[in-house]
Design brief:
The complex is a heterodimer of chains A (about 475) and B (about 100). With about 475 residues, chain A is an alpha+beta fold. Helices cover about 40% and strands about 20% of the residues of chain A. Chain A is built from 16 helices and 16 strands. In chain A, α6 packs across α7 and α13 crosses α15. The mean pLDDT of chain A is about 90. Classes of the chains: A alpha+beta (about 475), B alpha+beta (about 100). β2 of chain A pairs parallel with β1 of chain B.
């Protein structure tokens, strides 16, 4: 039987505010334990939450970006459960009336096709603290710095059909929240994480299968592996005549498998009810319009513009607009290269991206700025250097040896475009290799490469390749 | 609606309340009385009445995103039974 996977994601994006959602404590990452947990975050008696305005603005910006209905009146609710890193005994969240309603998002798949995925809702809530299970004399250590950090939980429709689609969706949401500058998207630090609901059903069947929820997956690679593991596990179970039980499972990245955390019978009964400490939240037209006017150009629109304005392929445009920093960098390079749109795209997505990757650097912190890369591209375009020599110049720039012109000058890398000079070298090479010349003229034409190599060796790669080819062929065939 | 002994035990567990087994019938009677009242209220026609999220007819006041709190960790931790390396210590919990 052929099986079909049905996947829905719940993404938690930590909103990039200075202070917490309901208190004036700092949200900075990596502070000493409990130094950023105030009386409100600790849930001490007598304290009251006051909602952070910026959190509301950020949630609305996201809602507008996914074309969603904004809940003009939304309500905060208490989600009740007991855990030591949740001091109040409840998490303030939103339940029946979330701030962001139904929206949608376009994802691009590896085969070049696109698919629209529905966003069911997005709601605001506070994060819990952190439990440290290392050994404190058989006890657990609690750090409440993260308690009260604002989260936007973004829930997708169960419209994803493979692990790859789930990853593409998650990447798109991450790109969006980073464009909007409402979340730094840092997965290592946990500012962007997801739970995946996975079920399988016979292909063509309408009814959904029983799902398992995989908790807290914090990298794209793990999302793909965890979902694929889960699809395979459920399929094997069903094919063997078994049944899937509804449960929460934990992904173990070391073992590459998911394992049961708790089943439906042990599932929490959260007893949601409206939080009496908080009044309903109202977002009026004027505010919403003000937020709309501050939205930046979003990835899809930017991608379209890059294709139209710079004549780039869908692929290049998609890669270059995957983050705002990369897109801005490309536009700066293109400008300082004097309009070399394609060369600039090749260099930014090629050697430049590879170098960033290799040294694990962010664009802002790397040794080659847009003007320098643009300058290098200019020298390729005006035939001062060949593309091959340019790689050498780029490496030198990356090592901090100066801009392209300085390096070309200092290392004497200027391309030889003087026809006479190239012809002279060709003559020398032909004279020195009479045997190969004879073979070539007898029909062994693949020896052309040998002669090109010899000339390049003498000129240390500086002969203009196009000219060399033309001149060499002329001489060989004369 | 009348609550059974098992319902009372489940509610007590969810609220992490220790109750005397002898008190279960009293709780069952009292809580069932509240549910009966809710059942009676449900018979009132509420079509066109928006659900009330809060008894005050006001909307949420918002604060500016500023850090206004200072570190008072030492003060807060004075009342904690056990602390170490800045952490509150609690009996071991593992999911």
């Amino acid at each position: 039987m052929e099986w079909e996977a049905v996947i829905g994601l719940e993404i938690h994006a930590q909103l990039a505010t200075k202070s917490k959602i309901f208190s004036g404590a700092a949200t900075a990452y990596g502070a000493e334990p409990n130094t950023q947990a105030c009386a409100v975050d600790l849930g001490l008696p007598g304290v009251l939450p006051v909602l952070n305005r910026e959190v509301v603005r950020m949630a609305c910006a996201f809602g507008l970006a996914v074309d969603a209905e904004i809940g003009r009146r939304s309500v905060f609710a208490r989600k009740n459960y007991f855990y030591p890193d949740l001091p109040k005994g409840y998490q303030i969240s939103q339940y029946e009336l979330p701030i962001v309603g139904k929206g949608k998002l376009l994802i691009e798949l590896e085969d070049g096709t696109a698919k629209t995925i529905g966003v069911t809702r997005a709601h605001l809530e506070e994060d819990a603290g952190k439990s440290l299970h290392e050994d404190f004399h058989g006890m657990t250590g609690i750090d409440l710095n993260r308690a009260g950090t604002p989260l936007l939980e973004i829930v997708s429709e169960p419209e994803l059909r493979s692990a790859k689609e789930a990853v593409a969706y998650m990447k798109k949401i991450r790109s969006l929240v980073r464009y909007l500058e409402i979340c730094d998207g840092n997965m290592q630090e946990g500012s962007f994480r997801c739970d995946a609901n996975v079920s399988v059903r016979p292909k063509g069947e309408e009814k959904l299968g029983t799902r398992a929820e995989i908790k807290n997956i914090n990298s794209f690679r793990f999302v793909e592996r965890a979902i694929n593991f889960e699809i395979e596990r459920q399929t094997r179970l069903l094919e063997g005549g078994g049944t899937v039980v509804q449960e929460t499972r934990l992904y173990d990245s070391a073992k590459g498998e998911t394992r049961s955390m708790r089943s439906k019978e042990e599932a929490m009964d959260y007893r949601y009810f409206p939080d009496p400490d908080l009044l309903p939240l109202h977002v009026d037209d004027a505010w919403l319009e003000a937020i709309r006017t501050t939205l930046p150009e979003l990835p899809d629109a930017k991608k379209e513009r890059f294709m139209f304005e710079y004549g780039l392929t869908v692929y290049d445009a998609a890669v270059l607009t995957s983050s705002r920093e990369l897109a801005d960098f490309y536009e700066a390079v293109e400008k300082s290269s004097g309009g070399e749109t394609k060369l600039a795209a090749n260099w930014v997505t090629g050697d430049f991206a590879a170098a960033l990757n290799k040294d694990n650097l962010e664009i802002g912190a790397c040794p080659v700025n847009a003007a320098m890369l643009g300058g290098l591209i200019q020298r390729i375009a005006d035939n001062t250097i060949s593309g091959k020599i340019a790689k050498q110049v780029f490496e030198a720039m990356w090592e901090g040896e100066g801009d392209a012109d300085t390096i070309i000058e200092k290392k004497g890398l200027k391309q030889i475009t003087d026809i006479g000079a190239i012809e002279q070298v060709i003559d020398e090479v032909l004279a020195a290799n009479p045997e190969q010349l004879g073979q070539y003229r007898a029909g062994k034409e693949k020896l052309l490469g040998f002669f090109v190599g010899q000339v390049m060796k003498v000129t240390r790669g500086k002969a203009n390749p196009t000219q060399l080819n033309k001149l060499l062929k002329k001489k060989l065939n004369s | 609606m009348s609550l059974e002994k098992a319902d009372i035990e489940k509610i007590a567990h969810l609220a992490r309340l220790g109750i005397d087994p002898g008190d279960v019938p009293v709780y069952a009677r009292n809580l069932s009385g509240i549910l009966d009242l809710v059942e009676r209220m449900e018979r009132v026609g509420t079509d066109g009445v928006p659900p009330m999220a809060h008894p005050l007819q006001m909307v949420q006041r918002l604060r500016v995103d500023e850090v206004t709190e200072t570190n008072q960790c030492d003060k807060f931790q004075q009342i904690a039974p056990q602390v170490e390396a800045g952490l509150y210590l609690v009996p071991k919990v593992i999911e």
